[in-house]
Amino acid sequence: MKAYIKGISYYLPERVMTNEELVKDFPEWSIEKIAAKVGVYSRHLAADGETAGDMAEKVALKLFEEYHINPKDIDFVLLCTQSPDYHLPSTACILQKRLDIPTSAGALDYDLGCSGCIYGMAIAKGLIFAGIAKNVLLLTSETYNKYIHLKDKGNRSIFGDGAAACLISSDGFAEIGEFSLGTDGSGAENLIVKTGCAKHFEKANDCHLDEDGHIQSSDHLYMNGSEIFNFTLDVVPTMKKEILLKNSLDKENIDYYVFHQANKFMLSTIRKVCGIPKERFYNNLETTGNTVSSTVLIGLKDCISNGILTSGMKVMISGFGVGYSWGGTILKFQ
Amino acid sequence: MESFDLIKFIKNFADQFDDTDAAEIKEDTNFKELDEWSSLIVLSIIALVKTQYGKTISGKEIRSCETVKDLFNLIESK
Question: For chain A, what is the largest distance between any 2 Cα atoms, rounded to a whole number of angstroms?
Fold first, then answer.
């Protein structure tokens, strides 16, 4: 029994926010510095009324069209999002109807961020191996910008909105290998939107400046950049070794690496700590920004379209971030 | 990993700045008062400490230091 990726598509919302436009709100900031450090020149933003559910629908339709997939053949829908349309029901249930997927299909949302695409592949592989589903539609869709305070220049420069879709099936073009996964809830407070859910339902209205002069608010996305950076430098090199071990591969066997596109500076530091050659390491978020759970699928799609990934290649993919949560696997291109 | 030498460390530290003259950065420099000081520089220092010295330092620890020498001592003690 094997599980494969059979198709990948992505969708970026129409509205583009360039660095030139962004610095108008922060005149003290240098465009060159943002671009050089975080590696983002422009990012897409979901429209006012456009939700993660809307973007997931659009990207699924794009996938169906691009790969001539009949929605009637989908028997499971997995939606990774931290910006669901409602507290309940699951956005994935609404998408079943909107995408004309049979009522005999299973559907669920799961709440993960930057590791989300990897976990989706792990769950989908499990569903296929267990004989529960044959064609799993994995959707990742995120509108983090709706959570970011307008005065939070750091996060506004890094994050972009976007969605990706992937069909996982018992046949396809890239076999999904063995996984290394990990979780450490002690980092929960370092990347969080505190209010709006059951624990703190009411808005806190506690917006203030932290010791670095950065905006901090319980009602908006908060990221402790240096803690997240340290977490990543701790777990990713170990995970990389474990993925190799679980797949009985040496690092010489890996043709290419597509890691979660957090930001350019963090990625190049991870690359150095992991000892991965530059030419085998994907680092591109120039026009998308960090789209959270969609970066790995967007990266894979771009690398396939540009001819960087070709048949016979072994590609390591991994995601890491909010939770903390991390995971990775090997894709064997057929 | 690099040997722990103050002169070398000051040079490596100064390399994290783009617009600040390296000559301006000495062991007794209060680095948080430099015009270019920012949270991005904090990340650069975390990366430097990890990649060059194989040690982990938090943003909070970096901010708790006054001078470059304080930071050097903190990293050396780890």
Answer: 57
